[in-house]
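REVIEWER CHECKLIST
Item 1: Sequence provided? yes
Item 2: Single chain? yes
Item 3: Sequence as submitted:
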Amino acid sequence: MVPSRSSDIVRVNARETDAFDIFNFKYYVGPNPYLNRGALVFDFVVTENWRPLPIEDYVSVVGDRYPQLNHQTYESYAQLFARTVSEVGKLDMDLHLERWSVKPHRQRVRIAVQSLYEATTRAVVYFVWDWFEAITQQEDIAFEQELQKLQRKFRQSVYGGPTIYALLRTADKKGIPTFYLWEEGLMQYGYEKKQVRGIATTFDSDSHLDSDFTTRKDDCKAFLETLGFPVPKGNAVTSEKGAFAVAAAIGYPVAVKPVVGHKGIGVTAEVQNDRELEFAYNTAVEAIPENEPVRIIVEKNIRGKDYRLLCVNGKFVAATERRPASVVGDGYSTIDELIERENRKPARLDTPTSPLSKIERDRAMELYLEEQGLSFDSVIEKDRTVYLRKVANLSAGGVSIDATSIVHPDNVILAQDIAQHLCLVCLGIDVIAEDIALSWKESSFAVLEINAAPGILMHLNPAIGDSVDVPSYILETFFKQSVDARIPIITFNQISVDELQETIDRILSVHPDWTIGAVCRDGVFVNRSQKLLCDRNYNSNIQTLLRNPKLDLLIAEYEEDILEKEGMFYYGSNMVVLNNPTEIEIMLVRDVIDDSTMVIKKEDKISIQRQGLIEEYTLGKDEPFTRVYLKEICTVI
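Item 4: Structure as written out by the authors:
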């Protein structure tokens, strides 16, 4: 087997036995001369040291893993290599990385593949290189094992969480620009004054007081009870002795959970006696984050099904039933073997987009099996279902079932009434109900807790039932359409500081209340106020302006050397002004948005294109180009 080079990111020369070589890696965060999205770009050659197999042999092997690659004709090895990198780069997680290009470049071919996270994409390229070399030498490669490593690498990135990635994918589909603010640890959606920042489903418009309030489950419970919503009887305690006292007062069975917690960690339901309560109390204590005080809720256990009701912007949008992990007997396998077999199912790959997590074995599961007279070594009769936990913890292998369409109108109103008391974009409401299709007023029903920043994968990709497009509901709270996420942008290929200031003045004469951000090679300005220029990285200046929540307009210069070295930070301009552009600078008209205006000067010839109409004329001897585009800018703005 070919030794892996997945981590060999500085290697530039192929071995004597390599049929292909890749080198000259360069990462662009945004549009660049090779692709209109963020991309990893590298050179590819067929080496003289080793003759590759016919291209059909590579297509046969690659197409066996990715059948969709069989339905295309490949003119070169580079084209097949690029297409394979693009497909592997989706990591079997449906990543929205569809774009790639192949362009001859001197004595080699330059490949560009769309990239969200450089480290993962680079590792994918090296893995595909290893794969092609293994095909050349007619050897096997541990494909699935290596793919899982790549998946883990992506999951560990800032983009790898299922909620964040789902929002990014939806934003891309809707044309909403996004970028990550590394210093702040936040994702930004939209530009400048149109922007929204957040972490997962928490946003800067949320009340931090309300968000903090939802973490105090005891206070939330008292709040809901005051408002008249059904909640289980019980209380918060700070000691094991207090837990026994509450259980004695309300009677078994009880449920036990930490006041501060998430994902069902530390929760024990159907506690039947003092022995189980002791274990449940200790389990809850162990789940409390470090430096948090010990506060445990002991409350009456409510029998019924576990549901999560999700509200976005105060409106009910989705409901999911959550069932505990279970296995079905076959008459000869032990429970442990059944769990192992269940965990190998594709649905339990435990990726950011898989509907099920791995079933986790722990002491709580062992005790619950003992209550049923079972153990991990028990053989279950054929077709018998054995539940492995008392609580439906999805992160430990529970099953999600879409229930959105069957929720009773009274329960919808209840969820919305709760959500409208809190200034939170997203709110998850956990309830126990005999049947969510029955009104809470006429059946067994209780609100267990409310959660700020709820996960959305259970609704977007349930194990059973239809998907609910929660990311769209969230983003449409802020942006009804893509234009709502953008401010006007004017892009130049060259502009002097004097011309830049003249342009700012002309726009301010029309819109005196605007705040304009502008950057060129020689300066950064907010209106006429000059700011610090970052010489280390030109695109840092662009980002600084795009993250400014006060700006109404961006003016930016992108010359050939910057486009080649760094690419662009943004895509989509309302107006592009080009003065004798080079072949690379022409890319600036490639990414214009609909109904944009382009003013292009080549020597003394002027071309103005607006709304599909093209006007051409010759620049007068004493007519400055500045006057032409300033007139157009005032028309556009």
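Item 5: Key structural point noted by reviewer: Residues 6-12 have pLDDT under 50 and may be disordered.
Item 6: Recommendation: ____
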